[in-house]
Amino acid sequence: MIEFKNISKRYGDDKSAALAVDNISFTVPTGTLTTLLGPSGCGKTTTLRMIAGLESPTAGEIWMADKNGQLENVTHRAAHERNVSLVFQNYALFPHMDVLANVGYGLKMSGVKKSDAKERAIAALQNVGLVGFDARLPSELSGGQQQRVALARALVLEPAVLLFDEPLSNLDAQLRRAMREEIR
User: Fold this and answer.
1) Does the structure show a pLDDT above 80 at 14?
2) What is the mean pLDDT of the chain?
3) Cβ neighbours of residue 30 under 8 Å, at least 6 residues apart?
């Protein structure tokens, strides 16, 4: 569960600072699929980045359920202290790492044993239809394939909260349907 309480985000310190998010409140119940809709520049990405802990709100509080379902204030908690994965709109793949290393990176940073991390990364690639792409670099992939690598990298961590910033925009219709089902 996620609860936003009167969240605002300004970029800059003075009163003329850009207002990205203006006093929003909402609740996302556990186990639901929720979509933020709005025009370009309305604060959707900033809101996702605040949930992930990559941005701090200027005002308000962010609450999330812990492993026991108890709400806790995570407003000032760092990204690595939250069980959240974010699939960025621009994929954010490491260009010098092959596909398998990109997918397994979060597991490696979390201290998962190398053999287990490799096994889980391969399974995640199978789930997004990228069997046999392990040794390719991101520059050797199409936009849709890069997007699926980013999706596999997020899913392999089995996060409590999975955030997507336009994750299916570069996929064809058939693959978009399949990936929607995989995400669910």
Assistant:
1) no
2) 90
3) 1, 65, 69
Q: What is the pLDDT of residues 118-133, one digit of tens each?
A: 999 999 999 989 999 9
Find out whether 63 and 72 touch, Cβ atoms under 8 Å.
yes
CA distances to 31, 61, 96, 132, 171 from 135, rounded to whole Å, are: 35, 43, 11, 8, 22
- Using DSSP's 3-state secondary structure scheme, residue 62 falls into strand
Task: Give the three-state DSSP class for 20.
Answer: strand
AA letter at 120: R
| CB-based contact 143:170 (threshold 8 Å) | yes
Look up residue 57 and give its two tokens: 């709100």
* pTM of structure: 0.83
Specify the long-range contacts of residues 43-46, CB closer than 8 Å, at least 24 apart: 43/9, 44/165, 45/89, 45/165, 46/9, 46/20, 46/21
Q: Residue 137 CA to chain centroid, in angstroms?
A: 21
The residues with which 7 forms a beta bridge, in sequence order, are 24
CA–CA separation, 96 and 26 (whole Å): 39
